[in-house]
Amino acid sequence: MQRAGHVLPFPLPYESRPGPARRAQFPNIDATAAAGAALCSADGALATVVHIVQDTSGAGHHRVAYSSGFAVSAPGAPAREAVVVTCAHTLEEIRHDPLLRAGLPSPAVHPGDHVSGSFVITGPPTAPVFHPVRAVLSALHRGDLLVLAASLPPTPTPTLSPRQNWRPEASLRTLPVNPYPVQPGTPIRAHFGWTPWVGGTWRKWVRGTVVGYKDFAGRDAKPGTYDSLAHLHFDPPPTQGSSGGPIVDEESGAVVGVVLGTQLVSHLQGVRGWGVPAEMIFEMFSLPGLDLKGRER
Length: 297
What we know:
The chain is mainly beta and 297 residues long. The protein has two helices and 15 strands. It has helices at residues 89-95, 162-165; strands at residues 8-11, 46-55, 62-72, 82-87, 114-122, 129-140, 145-150, 187-195, 202-214, 220-221, 231-235, 246-249, 255-266, 270-277, 285-286. The chain has a six-stranded antiparallel beta barrel with strand order 2-3-4-7-6-5. A six-stranded antiparallel barrel has the order 8-9-11-14-13-12. Strands 1-15 form a two-stranded parallel sheet. A hairpin with a 6-residue loop joins strand 5 and strand 6. The chain is globular and about 55 Å long. The model is unreliable at 30-38, 103-109 and 157-170 (pLDDT under 50).
């Protein structure tokens, strides 16, 4: 992927303690209700990211890979575009699918026999709105992260109510991102969905807890030290289609991680939710105050 390791020429604001207008606010839900099922102020920033390839030779073969994603505020990004953070592995699945391997010597696949594309989908399940992905802005393979540019103007400040934000015609609002890792035991809300991605979409915010961190060698790591925080473990484990969704600190209302899937920690501890700390997102953006106008994009 050409944009792997590319540092974008604009920064991502540090928002460890966002104000009331920016933070994700979750409604009080009765204990007997389905936790997280109600709309919250963060819903307007969420999207389904879909990568599609279809055989046009008449065989009728196709492949769809989908994940979650969320918009972030990136001052300096191209106008009338939303900057969306998601996971990278679903795009890699499509890129390595036999339907797209037309460049390889194979008598079964010929150039021009397929069409492909990526879309950011917003709106309710009954009326989804498809927005084409203009470009892959950056990718961080060791963090399984991807930053996309979609032709959808984000709302710079959340002026709409949660219910208005969920309307198809409303722009994506953006979520604040915290560059500082939270401590184990921190209460979180993780976005679980989308299954299936069109028609009857299931989605909700689930209460959970940060369990701990691992470094790149799989050893226990602690925030606030010189340890490399490569992996974030949380409970409960997410469902299929949750990859790329935000993990939000329930107290501050800022994104502190990105969901990647599940991972078997050990036979004793079992399967845990698996993600990356939000500090990795900042590796794809310029440092605040750093002028990269003279550098090639």
